UniProtKB/TrEMBL annotation:
It holds the Pfam family Stress-antifung. The lineage of its organism: Eukaryota, Viridiplantae, Streptophyta, Embryophyta, Tracheophyta. Gene3D superfamilies: Gnk2 domain, C-X8-C-X2-C motif (3.30.430.20). InterPro entries: Cell2Cell_Antifungal, GNK2, GNK2_sf. Keywords: Antibiotic, Antimicrobial, Cell junction, Disulfide bond, Fungicide, Host-virus interaction, Lectin, Mannose-binding, Plant defense, Repeat, Signal. GO terms for cellular component: plasma membrane; plasmodesma. It is found in: Cell junction, Plasmodesma; Cell membrane. It comes from Castanea mollissima. Belongs to the cysteine-rich repeat secretory protein family. Plasmodesmata-located proteins (PDLD) subfamily. This is Gnk2-homologous domain-containing protein.
C-alpha cells in the first residue's frame, strides 16, 4: 500500500512552506493616547523616562508572559512604565513590536508626560503617576 504521488507532493510542499515561512509581528497601530502634561528637555523627568522606556523595550521579552512593569531609580523625577506583547509571537518579534510602539508613542505624543501606544501584538505606556495596580502584577 503506497501513497498517491499527489499526496506526497502536497506533504512535501506543506513542510517546505512551514520551514521557510516566517511569522512577523503585527505592528499596525490600534491607538495612541497622550495626556495633556508636557515636559521640557532640561527636565530631570527626561532622564527617568529614557531609563524606563529603554528597559521596557529591552527587557519585556525576557519576562514571563511578555509583560514588564518598571520604575526609574532616580528619586528627583520618577517615571513609571509598562509594556506587554502577545504571547503568540517570538521574543525577538516582541522586541521589534515594542520598538515600533515606542516610535508611535513618541512620534504622536512628543514631550508628553504620559502616553500609551497600542499595536496589534504589543503595547507600551509611560507616565509620571504611580498606578498601584501596575505594581501588583510584578
Amino acid at each position: 500500500m503506497g501513497f498517491p504521488p499527489k499526496f506526497i507532493v502536497a506533504i512535501i510542499a506543506i513542510f517546505w512552506l512551514c520551514r521557510i515561512a516566517r511569522c512577523v509581528p503585527d505592528t499596525n497601530v490600534t491607538t495612541v493616547l497622550c495626556n495633556s502634561g508636557v515636559y521640557s528637555q532640561g527636565d530631570p523627568f527626561v532622564t527617568s523616562l529614557n531609563y524606563v522606556v529603554a528597559e521596557l523595550e529591552s527587557v519585556t521579552q525576557t519576562y514571563k508572559n511578555y509583560e514588564y512593569y518598571n520604575i526609574s531609580p532616580y528619586p528627583n523625577a520618577f517615571a513609571y512604565g509598562h509594556a506587554a506583547c502577545n504571547l503568540n509571537i517570538t521574543s525577538s518579534d516582541c522586541t521589534t513590536c515594542l520598538a515600533a510602539a515606542k516610535t508611535a508613542m513618541f512620534g504622536t505624543c512628543q514631550s508628553r508626560i504620559g502616553a500609551r501606544a497600542v499595536l496589534h501584538d504589543c503595547n507600551i505606556r509611560k507616565t509620571e503617576v504611580f498606578h498601584s495596580s501596575c505594581m501588583a502584577h510584578r
